[in-house]
Amino acid sequence: MYEGRLDGPLRAPALLVAFDGWVSAGAAGTTTLDHIAGDTEPAILFDSDRLYDYRVNRPTLDFVDGIMRHLVWPGAAIRIVRTDERDLLLLSGAEPNWGWRAFSEAAAEIAVEAGVVQHVSLGGIPWAAPHTRPTVVVTTASRPDLVSHGPNFPEGLLRVPASAVSVVERAVSERGIPTVAFWARVPHYVAGIYYPAVVDLVERVSRHLGIGVALGPLVDAAAEQRRQLDTAVNEQPTVATMVEQMEKMFDASDSAPSGEELAAEIERYLRERSGDD
Question: Does residue 23 have a cis peptide bond before it, meaning omega lies within 30 degrees of 0?
C-alpha cells in the first residue's frame, strides 16, 4: 500500500489530512497543508496504482520543445514537519478513486505506529457566502467536547456524501485518537484557491495544535484576491445586487440563499472577459 518510513522519535505528533476532490472547495485544505509543509519532501508514498483511476485522475505529461520530458502521477503522500513545539504528519494529495478502506486503515496504522496524539482534517465547503465577509469555519469532531458550540454549530442530523478525508479520520478515531475537522465555507463563485479560507485554516490549526505557523505571503494573496473579486462584482450590477443580498443574510443569521444564480453570473462575466488580461 505504501513505501517509506517515519524517522523517529516524534514529539507529540499530530496528523493533518486534506485531499483534492470532495470536499475541497477553494483548495482550502490542501493549500493549508502545502503552506505548512513548505519545501518538505514526502517521507511516505502510497501506491498510486492501487488508489487511482487514471482516466479520472490523469497523470500530467510535460513536453519541452516537442520532446516528452516529465510524467507526474497522481498520488498521496505523508510529509513530516518539525515545528518548535511539536512534530506534524501531513497527509495530502488527490482523493483516491479506489481502495478507501485499505487506504484509511493503512493511514490509521501509520498514525498509531508514529504515536499520533491528535488528528486534524481540513477542507472547504462550497457555500452561498459573500467574499466580503469573514470566512466561516465549521467544526466537527470525534467527541462532543471537541466541537465548538458557537453560532455555526452543526446541530442535529447532517447526512452528506462521505469524503476520503473523513473516512481516514474515522479510522484514526477508532484507534482512540481524538479527531477534529475544520471546514471553511468558500463562496460558490470563486474558482481556484480561495486565500481568505486558507488564512483562516492556518490560524485555526495553529491555535488548536499550539504551534506557530507564519502566514507569510498568504495575507497579501488574500488581499489581492479580495480586490480582484470586488472589481469583478462591481462591474456587474446584477452580481453586485446578489452579493448585497448575501451580505444582508450573512449579517442577519450567518446563512445565505443558494449561490447558483451568482455562480452563473460570475461564469458569464468571466467568459465575456476571457480575451482580456
Answer: yes
